[in-house]
Design a protein that fits this description.
This protein is of the alpha/beta class and about 475 residues long. Helices cover about 55% and strands about 10% of the residues.
Length: about 475
């Protein structure tokens, strides 16, 4: 079930942020203080618009839910809009107004009367959009040139005009334009009156998931916010991956369009999340994906998040890379024998090698270069691979210190792949031996009857990784 700010408000003050693993509470406190101060000092002609900019996976939705709860706890009115959920609608105005009405749903008196008038006015505005909607549909079906002719004929019919009464048609068109402009003016007046009923202004409008919407809907929503709600006493926060939103705008206006400058029209300020502590980010993604600690084996007293973070630092993975590699690790874990606890470091490093260099990974795996027991893994990854910068003279990786133990663990696991499970004590590593002993005990009860002694199922890890990689994000 979707998380609800009302449920958060039923808890005590500390509990609103109790599961904050990415240090977002400080961002929330600062942003609330900033918005209240700027709104109080705003001019008479405009409100405040903030673009909350962070890549996917940085917890924007988590943050907005708790920002909403914090503001509501302080008795501010907050409209929450999930843009992606509502982008099936033709006009995003209704999605925004639905959130606004919900923020006032328990009110009586003046605000209730104003909302009733706003609903009626919003209906008029949408009727005014009908011509534009019909134009877009026809352009998609029969082409822009032919659509223009059809729409012109449609307009004449609606206006009751024919060629010999062109003046009457023009007069009707101007009257329709004037009515539309008046409807917009009345709507803005209604929002201003609604804001005027607040005991604790401003009115906050929080927009989530805009960058996941259809390009035309996303652009229309920004236009609606700017034209309908940009007024004193209204603050809106739009959470986006702004880089992705730039591509969305270009999809509407063309690849050469200056989308960055276009977006600057809509926002007064942009707020960027800082990178969270790496271990906390890994743990957050680990839990969200559904990876099970009991399914993996760590070294000594390390935790999964510590080992993943160690690998990520050594290989300079971005947060998005880490997330994608953990998704791949989850899929791989579904393909290998569920009775085994997989070695975290080795399995994650192999997923990372595939994620970063899939073509090299496949070629080397096919020729046995990755996993040949008498050869070192790090020595046989190609020059452009993930360990290419390893400098044995100063134990650095592209100028950064690296835990030498990490490379040694991976090498020893690779050494054990060509060693029968009954003889893995020969690989000379307690780290790798712990896993191989575990596999021999769980799958073979520490013995075999006849024939060749069994080999580790980790020999099948390359194929499992490539198979799991077939399940990927669309696009």
């Amino acid at each position: 079930m979707a998380e609800d700010s009302t449920a958060l408000l039923k808890t005590n003050e500390l509990d609103i942020w109790q599961d904050d693993r990415l240090n977002r509470e400080e961002d929330g406190s600062f942003l609330i203080q900033y918005m209240l101060d700027r709104s109080a000092r705003a001019g008479e002609d405009s409100g405040l618009a903030i673009n909350l900019n962070a890549p996917w996976g940085f917890g924007k939705t988590f943050f907005l839910k708790r920002l909403q709860a914090d503001l509501q706890r302080a008795e501010h009115r907050v409209a929450m809009v999930d843009a992606w959920r509502d982008d099936h609608a033709e006009d995003p105005l209704f999605a925004v107004m639905s959130g606004v009405f919900a923020a006032f749903e328990e009110d009586k008196g003046a605000s209730k009367r104003i909302i009733s008038e706003l609903k009626n006015n919003a209906g008029k505005l949408t009727v005014r959009m009908a011509r534009g909607a019909i134009t877009r549909v026809l352009e998609a079906v029969i082409g822009k040139k032919d659509a223009e002719g059809v729409i012109d004929d449609f307009g004449r019919i609606v206006a009751g005009a024919v060629d010999d009464v062109a003046g009457e048609y023009a007069e009707a068109a101007l009257a329709s334009f004037d009515k539309g402009r008046q409807a917009i003016s009345d709507f803005r007046d209604g929002i201003a009156q609604l804001v005027g009923t607040l005991d604790k202004p401003p009115l906050f409008i929080l927009i989530d998931e805009l960058d996941r919407c259809r390009p035309t809907y996303a652009v229309a929503l920004l236009e609606r916010l700017k034209h309908m709600f940009d007024m004193p006493g209204v603050v809106f926060v739009v959470a986006t991956d702004t880089g992705q939103l730039v591509h969305t705008v270009k999809a509407v206006y063309g690849a050469d369009f200056d989308a960055q400058r276009y977006l600057m029209r809509f926002f007064d300020r942009a707020y960027q999340f800082g990178e969270p502590p790496l271990e906390e980010f890994v743990e957050s993604v680990w839990k969200r994906i559904g990876l099970d600690d009991e399914r993996f084996m760590t070294l000594a007293t390390n935790s999964n998040k510590q080992e993943i973070a160690t690998c990520a630092r050594a290989m300079r993975l971005s947060l998005r890379d880490i997330e994608q590699c953990l998704e791949l690790l989850y899929s791989v874990s579904l393909l290998l024998d569920e009775r085994l606890r997989l070695p975290t470091i080795y399995a994650f490093v192999m997923c990372t090698a595939f994620h970063s260099y899939p073509e090299d990974f496949s070629e080397m795996a096919e020729h046995g270069f990755l996993f040949r027991g008498n050869l070192k893994l790090a020595d046989h990854l190609k020059a452009e691979s993930i360990f290419c910068g390893w400098d044995h003279s100063d134990h650095s990786y592209h100028g950064r210190e690296v835990n030498e133990q990490l490379l040694e663990v991976v090498r020893r696991f690779a050494d054990g792949l060509a060693t029968p499970l009954s003889r893995t004590n020969e690989i000379g590593s307690s780290w790798a031996k712990e896993y191989y002993d575990h596999e021999f005990a769980v799958l073979h009860n520490n013995r075999y009857n006849s024939g060749s002694p069994p080999q580790s199922i980790l020999n099948g890890l390359p194929d499992a990784i490539r198979r799991a990689a077939r399940m990927h994000e669309p696009g």
